[in-house]
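Milestone M4 deliverable, item 7.
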Amino acid sequence: MRILAIDAGNSRIKWGVHEDGSWLTQGWVATGQAARLSRAWARFGRPDAIVAANVAGTRAAGAIAAAARRFGSSVRFVRSAAEQCGVKNSYADPRQLGADRWAAMIGAWGLHHGPCVVVNAGTTVTVDALGGGGVFLGGMIVAGADLMRDALARNTAGLRPRPGRFAFFPSRTADAIESGAVNALAGAVERMVRFMRQAGEAAPLTVLSGGAAQVIAPQLNGAVEVVDNLVLEGLVRIALDSPVVSRRPPRIPGR
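Output delivered:
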């Protein structure tokens, strides 16, 4: 089964074509340039299913649907559920959980089947606790490093964004800002690990994905694994668990 999986986030729309247990190709476009998807997808054949997690709003959803029409296909936009692919959702209202977070946890569970702290490190950083029984216990949403730097530049005098490096003991302002952002994110992850252990879970694996994963991972204690495009991994599992084969959208009378 050939699956086109799409993760539409605030900054990027990432996608991949999956078949027979492996990725045939992956790519991305900037979310603001979603109209380029059709050209990007022109180089491969029609998928059997198209599945997407979209947190980028209606304009991105429309662009994804329009690009899918070149295949004569419709898109299945994933919504979080009470239970799916072995993961149970304990959110007060399961439907309010972001589709990207839900897919990432399904991806992590499918890979490891054990307690995990699932981290998506993009424009925002989500830190979600997945218990050993596949139960989503709850999670945090934190501003990503770029948002932290932008907030400092916008709301203070003399802290303009400049390239900085992480250091244990920063001696330059740019390094202090970079180190503060990275430490804040690493601290959120490590506190969630601690909360899970205090709740009686076995020591969880931290599963990191997203553009800032490689920056955060070296600053963490405990077992850490970086997974490229964890949301896409989860989307493939969702598509295989309840397959909906792509077909031509029904014709609307009068159009």
